[in-house]
Amino acid sequence: MRIIDLNCDMGEGLTNDAFLMPYISSANIACGYHAGDETIMKRTIELAMFHSVAIGAHPGFADKANFGRTEMPLSSTEVYELVTDQITLLQRTAFIFGTKLHHVKPHGALYNMSAKDPVLAGTIARAVFDADPKLILFGLSGSHSITEALKIGLSTASEVFADRTYQNNGNLTPRNQQSALIDSDEKCVQQVLQMIEQNTVTSIDGTIVPIVAETICLHGDGRHAVNFAAYIYKTLQEKNIGIKSI
Questions:
Q1: Is the pLDDT of residue 168 over 90?
Q2: Alpha carbons 76 and 120: distance in angstroms, whole number
Q3: How many domains does the chain fold into?
Q4: Residue among 124, 120, 213 nearest 166 (CA)
Q5: Does residue 41 sit in helix, strand or coil?
Q6: Other beta carbons less than 10 A from residue 144's beta carbon
Q7: Pairing of strands 200-202, 103-104
């Protein structure tokens, strides 16, 4: 049986986490900087444990006003501390419940910037490794996030996206472009199956782009998130594709 990890960004103060959790295998939990707070972190960890979902930190820029989706020009030292502080917060919260973190996935602008910048990617990877060398870093397939982490011996999971469109270079289409988001169940599932079965994705202009699909992200704040999750789950079951954390 083919296996794939299905991850979702959670703990961001929305109301659909409980509806999404049964369909996924990994939860990326906001650490209070771009969204969420200590109470939400605890609630989300409990929910993930109930559904046997792997728990990961989702560190982002300290910018709740823009949901962490605006670039910030921080130094390497500032980025290292930003990521370390958020991982530590979630580690301490997880410890209360007798569990540990499984992975780290940067959020929003921090994620997209590190995918394109080897220095930033290396800084984030080092912060994750120093927090716990057994953690897995989720990063954009084919990006600096993956290559820089591997250089220091950090385990990685190449990530692709169920609900976002792609450009010819393998990057996600920026959110300020009208075509950035996938808005139909059929297109979402079609893209997921193509990524799993063919290791490719079709860009917005029709180019076939090679990717490595080890974990598939579904954004919890997406307008169609619950419908997409249910449809993906059902389709993968029908295709005899298992959903399991890395």
A1: yes
A2: 7
A3: 1
A4: 213
A5: helix
A6: 21
A7: unpaired
Residues 6+ apart with CB under 8 A from 195: 160, 201, 211, 213, 216
pLDDT one-digit tens code per residue, 198-225: 999 999 999 999 999 999 999 988 888 9
Q: Can you give the residue range of the structural domain that contains 206?
A: 2-243
Q: What is the dihedral of CA 16, 221, 12, 246, to 10 degrees?
A: 90
Structure tokens at 181: 């988001």
Alpha helices, H only, 159-224: 185-198
Distance between CA atoms of residues 103 and 56, nearest Å: 4
CA-to-CA distance for 61 and 142, rounded, in angstroms? 23
Cα(235)–Cα(227) distance, integer angstroms: 12
Instruction: Compute the CA torsion angle 108, 130, 81, 219 (nearest 10 deg).
Output: 20
Contact 241, 185 (CB under 8 A): no
Q: Is the pTM here over 0.70, yes or no?
A: yes
Give 28's DSSP letter.
E
- Which residues on adjacent β-strands are paired with residue 65? none
Sign of torsion over alpha carbons 109, 111, 112, 117: positive
